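Translate structure to sequence.
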């Protein structure tokens, strides 16, 4: 089964939170309520250096995805 690159998620246990799930490497879940990120990968020290450079781009893309999805609901 193929998944989209980003998915929106919510949970009744976190009624004010909206989550964005990034399904490609490096996988993560971004909580838009507080901007916390949970990485779903185990990284080596070498990976972490590359990740720090890419993380900002990934999180920006996730936020842009959210903005695009919300704009589509308004239409």
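Result:
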């Amino acid at each position: 089964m193929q998944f989209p690159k980003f998915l929106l998620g919510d949970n009744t246990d976190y009624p004010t939170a909206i989550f964005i799930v990034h399904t490609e490497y490096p996988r993560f879940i971004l909580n838009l309520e507080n901007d916390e990120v949970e990485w779903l990968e185990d990284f080596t020290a070498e990976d972490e250096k590359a990740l720090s450079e890419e993380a900002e781009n990934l999180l920006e893309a996730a936020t842009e995805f959210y903005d695009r999805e919300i704009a589509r609901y308004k239409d």
